[in-house]
């Protein structure tokens, strides 16, 4: 509180001398908590200290960032290497996944700066650009934007998320069984990014959400801190990205939406490096990652407002297109006429081309959720044209889109073209597509046969087993349908206890007899044994 | 209603088409905090499709989770499961389904002889719905209990059949006896539908040409006839009377019906036929006068001729008196009040007229009158055809 004795209305994140504090006009309101905050930021603020005096979380982050491989690297490499064969999926092509891609870039890049420039490039809107120019050109400590131009996030969730599976077990199976449940919680891991990843990997998303709240408190963005100015760093924004992603993954959409509101579309000046010249010098670009931008644009769609998402996604797309145009015109991503090497430019075009495709995927998904199928088909058609490598996979997706609206001949044409491009013996996807076509033609026997053929290729593929089970039901074989799903679960419980599969199985149990309830409890027991988390919708189904 | 305990129970599930389930496509860059964890989770999700993980066009069938409307022309499918609630063996089980019009035995004939405690009787029914409104399906199960005492119970299922399409038709009669049929098909269901087939089954008196394809045979609506809720697709057909239909009156009345097949979610199919479309045949009366030859351009104040076809539609010979009326813009040349030669039944004759245009511009030919002297009935032909009157000009005057 002593700092309040010397209020400095004229300071925003200014570095004074040793007693410098993070002050803004609004910071007068800050309470004791801000003392803690100030100490942290004190260290954080020293431009030269990036690797020295950072708070623990930051240090861990930078360590991890520098490590080519993270603790789960073995896991990624597995997928990475499978991707380097020619059956690599769109994910890697989109530049989303894998160490392989990074290495591909890193090999040619002496310092991280080129890769960083490419990765962080963004074109802010005009208003933000003006403010950033003012930031860069004013003498340090003399430029203060309005509060409305600041991003002021805070954790809104009042309490930590509990163990919803445990609660369901307690209600249905009794406290005794609930007490036997052992799961990983936010307290069981190191209170840092590494711990956070451990939770995510274990599928303990709710615990991970709890940990993000704790870590954000270190940045003065914890519980109840919304609406108060605080400073952003790559790490704090990554925490937010992770938190909001996980809130969506666990379908706590209303909280995700409320907590994300202050970020808008990440076009306020304080999420750009130029806003903090004293820390980042003249480094350009966005502190918020591209994934975060995409996530925020998609968020309204998950909350039932797809129209809003459509506008936002098109906006993201237009900027990505502009970046690609700039690159092709010989400029930097953001339109800066700085010279960049040819290989750098090609890498960047590849990166942003991949991001463009990813945005198009999101727009397609959004169009589907709006039942705006023409738009989805049109964009999917465009993707088929531009991505020759994955053309057959995209055509197969387009075919299924046709099936979804009931256009059987259109679907057949797509599947046929995909088959001709791919050639060779029918692969799993093709056999499944055939089965789906039979489903659409109301021929569930034929569909079952197709799926069975596919299951020879991958006997434990859950999707195929599930589809076989569905066909059995439509063929009047309820008991067999149930046993297919039950055996799938017994073979691979952690993987098979999946939301959609469980929904199907519960539906079958409901049909079978009045003993369905006991069988659902058995499922709940399995979930409790193998899953850290389960979607609430499923748990409600199991209660019933 | 049912208070007594039964040894058997019955469950019913409506089998609408499954849907395709997809994961929530959350992804991130490898440099983002979660590393590849999100991407890996997505790739390992059973509902994601390898190679197109971030597209929500999955392959994973999800059973219907919420009630779906049923529409006229669709097929109501249902799974009926009869199971035993006790440890006793139940004998002689009949399962019947009663619709508004008929009673269908569902279980095999002879009836299921015995049902052990763990056994079930499974029946999938398909019932095409042919009427709009509330339908009640009654499922009746009769059985004998362990000591042979018969028992019966019923379950009722209400289904509300809605109207899927609104079809509006309009006819246009062309002068050459062709009829154009314009059909507007409006989707009044809750979701988008795909029109798989819209065809006009014409009655035998007509040959039908669909005008919904380009000369290259392509559908003018594009490859997908996707119709959103409340949207309308408009189709046009040309009906040409068969050569062997001589009596024009036969061309009134039924001309055919529209046959429409659509599909919705994952191929759910519906089919409707309209009732016979009735054409209000143009009432030509006993005689008709049609333009046979007429110049498009005529020169001001210079006489021109044109020919008309006079048709006797009736069964008697008609005697006609031709007269001209003064109309603006045209002066008739010829004798008004002239009696024509008698015209036998179902015959035609060509008449030639001569007139002088008096006003430049577009003029219509009006003022010809025919009087049926037997019935004392007058036919007035106004706006019989149109001519464009030009002022004498070197170029135009050369043209005939």
UniProtKB/TrEMBL annotation, chain A:
Keyword Membrane set for record: no
InterPro entries (UniProt xref): TPR-like_helical_dom_sf, TPR_rpt
Pfam families hit by this protein: Coatomer_E (PF04733)
The organism's place on the tree of life at top rank: Eukaryota
Segments of skewed composition (Basic and acidic residues): 17-26
Residue ranges of the region described as Disordered: 1-26
Record field: compositional bias (Polar residues): 1-16
Start-end of each TPR repeat: 428-461
Keywords: TPR repeat
Protein name as catalogued: Trafficking protein particle complex subunit 12
Automatic annotation (TrEMBL), chain B:
UniProt xrefs under Pfam families: TRAPPC13_C, TRAPPC13_M, TRAPPC13_N
Domain Trafficking protein particle complex subunit 13 middle, first and last residues per copy: 165-282
Limits of the Trafficking protein particle complex subunit 13 N-terminal domain: 6-161
The organism's place on the tree of life at top rank: Eukaryota
Domain (Trafficking protein particle complex subunit 13 C-terminal): residue spans on this chain: 295-389
UniProt family annotation: Belongs to the TRAPPC13 family.
Name used for this protein in its record: Trafficking protein particle complex subunit 13
Organism: Cryptolaemus montrouzieri
């Amino acid at each position: 509180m002593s700092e309040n004795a010397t209020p400095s209305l004229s300071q925003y994140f200014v570095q004074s001398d040793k007693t410098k504090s993070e002050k803004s006009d609004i910071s007068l309101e800050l309470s004791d908590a801000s003392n803690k905050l100030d100490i942290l930021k004190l260290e954080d603020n020293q431009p030269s200290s990036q690797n020295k005096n950072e708070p623990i979380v930051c240090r861990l982050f930078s360590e991890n960032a520098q490590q080519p491989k993270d603790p789960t690297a073995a896991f990624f490499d597995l997928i990475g290497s499978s991707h380097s064969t020619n059956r690599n999926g769109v994910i890697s092509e989109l530049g989303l996944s894998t160490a392989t891609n990074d290495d591909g870039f890193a090999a040619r890049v002496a310092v991280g700066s080129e890769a960083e420039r490419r990765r962080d490039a963004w074109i802010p809107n005009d208003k933000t650009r003006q403010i950033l120019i003012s930031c860069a050109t004013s003498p340090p400590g003399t430029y203060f934007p309005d509060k409305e131009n600041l991003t002021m996030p805070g954790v809104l969730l009042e309490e930590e998320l509990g163990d919803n599976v445990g609660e369901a077990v307690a209600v249905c199976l009794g406290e005794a069984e609930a007490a036997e449940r052992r799961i990983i919680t936010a307290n069981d891991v190191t209170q840092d990014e590494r711990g956070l990843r451990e939770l995510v990997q274990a599928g303990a998303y709710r615990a991970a959400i709890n940990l993000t709240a704790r870590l954000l408190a270190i940045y003065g963005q914890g519980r109840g801190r919304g609406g108060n100015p605080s400073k952003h760093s790559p790490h704090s924004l990554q925490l937010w990205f992770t938190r909001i992603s996980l809130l969506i993954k666990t379908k706590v959409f209303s909280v995700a939406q409320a907590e994300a509101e202050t970020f808008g579309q990440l076009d306020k000046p304080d999420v750009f490096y130029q806003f903090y010249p004293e820390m980042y010098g003249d480094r350009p670009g966005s502190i918020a990652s591209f994934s975060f931008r995409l996530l925020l644009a998609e968020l309204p769609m998950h909350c039932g407002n797809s129209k809003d998402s459509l506008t936002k996604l098109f906006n993201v797309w237009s900027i990505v297109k502009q970046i690609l145009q700039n690159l092709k015109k010989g400029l930097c991503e953001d339109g800066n006429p700085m010279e960049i090497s040819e290989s750098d430019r090609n890498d960047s075009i590849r990166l942003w081309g991949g991001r463009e495709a990813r945005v198009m995927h999101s727009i397609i998904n959004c169009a589907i959720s709006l039942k705006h199928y023409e738009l989805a088909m049109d964009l999917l058609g465009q993707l088929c044209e531009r991505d020759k490598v994955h053309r057959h996979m995209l055509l197969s997706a387009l075919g299924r889109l046709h099936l979804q609206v009931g256009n059987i001949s259109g679907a057949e044409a797509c599947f046929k073209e995909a088959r001709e491009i791919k050639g060779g013996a029918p692969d799993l996807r093709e056999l499944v597509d055939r089965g789906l076509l039979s489903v659409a033609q109301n021929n569930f026997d034929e569909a079952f046969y197709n799926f069975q053929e596919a299951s020879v290729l991958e006997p434990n593929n859950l999707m195929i087993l599930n589809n076989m089970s569905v066909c059995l039901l439509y063929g009047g074989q309820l008991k067999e349908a149930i046993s297919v799903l039950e055996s799938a679960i017994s073979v691979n419980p952690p993987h098979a206890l999946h939301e959609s599969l469980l929904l199907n199985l519960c539906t079958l149990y409901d049909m079978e007899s009045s003993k369905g309830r006991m069988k659902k409890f058995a499922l709940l027991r399995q979930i409790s044994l193998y899953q850290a988390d389960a979607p609430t919708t499923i748990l409600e189904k199991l209660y019933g | 209603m049912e208070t007594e305990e039964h040894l058997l129970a019955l469950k019913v599930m409506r089998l609408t088409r499954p849907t395709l389930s997809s994961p929530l496509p959350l992804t991130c860059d490898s440099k983002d905090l979660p590393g590849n964890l999100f991407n890996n989770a997505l790739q390992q999700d059973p509902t994601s499709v390898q190679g197109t993980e971030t597209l929500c066009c999955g392959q994973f069938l999800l059973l219907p989770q919420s009630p779906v409307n049923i529409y006229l022309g669709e097929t109501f499918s249902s799974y009926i499961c009869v199971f035993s609630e006790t440890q006793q063996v139940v004998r002689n089980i009949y399962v019947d389904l009663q619709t508004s019009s008929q009673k269908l035995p569902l279980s095999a004939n002879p009836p299921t002889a015995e049902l052990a405690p763990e056994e079930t009787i499974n029946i999938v029914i398909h019932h095409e719905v042919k009427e709009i409104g509330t339908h009640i399906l009654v499922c009746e199960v009769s059985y004998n209990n362990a000591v042979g005492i018969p028992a019966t119970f019923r379950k009722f299922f209400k289904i509300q059949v809605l109207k899927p399409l609104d079809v509006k038709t309009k006819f246009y009669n062309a002068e050459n006896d062709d009829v154009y049929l314009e059909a507007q098909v409006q989707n009044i269901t809750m979701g988008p539908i795909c029109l798989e087939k819209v065809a006009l089954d014409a009655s035998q008196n007509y040959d039908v040409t669909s005008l919904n394809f380009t000369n290259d045979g392509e559908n003018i609506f594009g490859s997908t006839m996707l119709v959103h809720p409340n949207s309308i697709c408009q189709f046009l057909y040309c009906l040409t009377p068969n050569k062997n239909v001589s009596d024009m009156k036969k061309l009134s009345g039924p001309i055919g019906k529209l046959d429409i097949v659509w599909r919705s979610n994952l191929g759910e199919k519906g089919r409707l036929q309209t009732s016979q479309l009735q054409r209000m045949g143009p009432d030509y009366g006993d005689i008709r006068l049609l333009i046979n030859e007429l110049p498009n351009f005529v020169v001001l104040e210079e006489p021109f001729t044109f020919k008309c076809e006079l048709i006797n539609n009736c069964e008697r010979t008609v005697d006609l008196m031709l007269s001209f009326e003064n109309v603006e813009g045209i002066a008739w040349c010829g004798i008004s009040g002239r009696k024509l030669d008698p015209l036998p039944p179902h015959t035609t004759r060509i008449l030639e007229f001569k007139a002088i245009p008096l006003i430049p511009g577009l003029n219509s030919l009006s003022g010809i009158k025919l009087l049926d002297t037997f019935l004392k009935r007058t036919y007035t032909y106004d706006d019989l055809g149109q001519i464009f009157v030009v002022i004498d000009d070197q170029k135009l005057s050369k043209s005939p």
